[in-house]
Amino acid sequence: MNRTETNGTPTNSASQPGAAAHGFALADGGIETALTDRLGQELPEFAAFVLLDTADGREALREYYRPFLALAARLGMPLVLDTPTWRANPDWGSVLGRDAAALERANADAVALLRTLVEQIAPDSDVTVNGCVGPRFDDFVAADRMSVESARDYHAPQIAALAEAGADRVTSVTTLDVAEGSGIVLAAREARIPAAVSFTVGADGRLADGSTLASAIAAVDAATGGAAVGFLVNCAHPSEVRRGLEAVGGGSDRIIGFRLNAARHGEEGPGDAPGEFAAGIAGLLALAPNARVLGGCCGTDAPHIAAVADAVAVRAA
Predict the structure, then answer these.
(1) Average pLDDT over residues 163-190
(2) For 217-252, what is the HEC assignment?
(3) pLDDT tens digits for 61-119?
(4) What CA–CA distance (Å, rounded) separates 137 from 123?
């Protein structure tokens, strides 16, 4: 059993060579909820990138990431860290009073902060700095949805900034439909940076437009010539993702990872404890056999990811 200090750092974890040997990589947790719950930060519009504006804010971001870097280094496992840029796009930037130049700086600063932190804490670790590209809209309203081309154009400035700053890849996160995910992949191809698409699903295991995960993945591949490095699912509970995968007789071999919530849709409170959460993640691997990047989203923090490492090590043994 892992014990956890009050700062969120898991302690007393044994090394888990089995997980690393079988190609699993960890990812960080729910950055926005961890920043508010563990670190007491206020995030206007749930935007973590605003913390880059101040010395105290940057230190809070470092404090969020440190436990994940320490965990991966101790276990000898690869790690994928998302930049705090989920809201750093034009519409949300406008709401937050940031113009295009300020957003470009924020995306570049986010990559630089992570690069420096990796060098300080885990210089010998295999760490992927993933540029997080959030959706234009949180809610699915058919009249607001973009075409593939307009999504490409909308997200291109952020993707270019992340690429130029040296991110290893970008991921379309909490993606609601095929068109936005496809546009982001195409923009990334133009910026010469690898891209993944991470869909979110509802309580029924389907995308907001009613698509299944399998059909959405196939549609993005068709629209982009299979340019995405792979697909993930995030911001849903493991049970909801299981429902979506089982409904189509299993998962897609194009799913490369899960970054999931501790609580089900509509539930209040903290959600699953770390061990229960990890068991839910591990239980999805039979349905998505190529899923190797495992992490958290809302309501999760370093103890949840430590438990996931334990669970996949046991499975791999």
Answers:
(1) 98
(2) HHHHHHHHCCCCCEEEEECCCHHHHHHHHHHCCCCC
(3) 999 999 999 999 999 999 999 999 999 999 999 999 999 999 999 999 999 999 999 99
(4) 37
Cα gap 221→195, rounded to integer Å: 12
Question: For the chain, where are the alpha helices, taking DSSP H only?
Answer: 17-21, 31-37, 55-75, 90-95, 100-121, 148-164, 178-191, 213-224, 238-247, 274-282, 302-316
CB 2 within 8 A of CB 12: yes
Grade residue 268 by pLDDT with cuts at 50, 70 and 90: confident
Report the alpha-carbon angle 169-172-174, nearest 5: 140
pLDDT on residue 76 = 95
Closest by Cα among 32, 84, 34 to 58: 84
CA distance 92 to 310: 37
Looking at residue 314, its pLDDT comes to: 78
Please check the confidence at residue 9 and state whether its pLDDT lies above 80.
no
**Which two three-digit tokens encode residue 264?**
């089900």
Q: How much is the average pLDDT of 230-244?
A: 97
Helix axes 100-121, 148-164, angle to 10 degrees: 50
Distances (CA, A) of 160 to 88, 100, 103, 130: 13, 12, 11, 13
Handedness of CA 160, 254, 85, 142 (dihedral sign): positive
Q: Which of 273, 269, 281 is nearest to 313 (CA)?
A: 281
Kind of pairing between the strands at 230-234 and 255-260: parallel
Q: DSSP characters for 131-156?
A: EEE--S-SS--GGGPPPHHHHHHHHH
